[in-house]
Amino acid sequence: MQSRKPIAKAFMKEVKIILKAIRRDGGYIATNEDDDDATIMAKALVVAQKTIDRQGKQLESANKVIEEQKPMVTFAEKISYKLASPNN
Fold first, then answer.
1. Alpha helices, DSSP H only, in the chain?
2. N or C: which end of the chain has fewer CB within 10 A?
3. What residue ranges do the domains of the chain occupy?
């Protein structure tokens, strides 16, 4: 069900613009008409730094899991190699 009110149409148009920008550029930064280039760039840098920090934490977490699972993987590889070897 969709609303036919003008405000709803304007909202949907803005959402489409934002989604298009995200697909095209990989992100969207809300700006005001009175924002100058330096302010917009500062907002972009803040978003970029948060993204880098978040990805760094995800990488640390993944590396921790890899290190914890390393002995199990090594054991499983030895077992599978012995089972696959024709000279058991």
1. 6-25, 37-84
2. N
3. 1-30, 42-88
Please name the residues in contact with 35: beta carbons below 8 A apart, sequence gap of 6 or more. Answer: 43
Q: What is the pTM of this model?
A: 0.56
Q: How far apart are CA 31 and CA 47, in angstroms?
A: 13
CA distance 87 to 6: 77
Residue pair 79/65 in contact (Cβ under 8 Å)? The answer is no
Is the torsion defined by CA of 42, 31, 36, 23 positive or negative?
positive
Token look-up 């993204």 returns 51
In whole angstroms, what is the distance from residue 9 CA to residue 2 CA? 9
Q: What Å distances lie between residue 41 and 3, 27, 48, 62, CA to CA?
A: 36, 13, 10, 31
52-78 pLDDT, tens per residue? 998 999 999 999 999 999 999 999 999
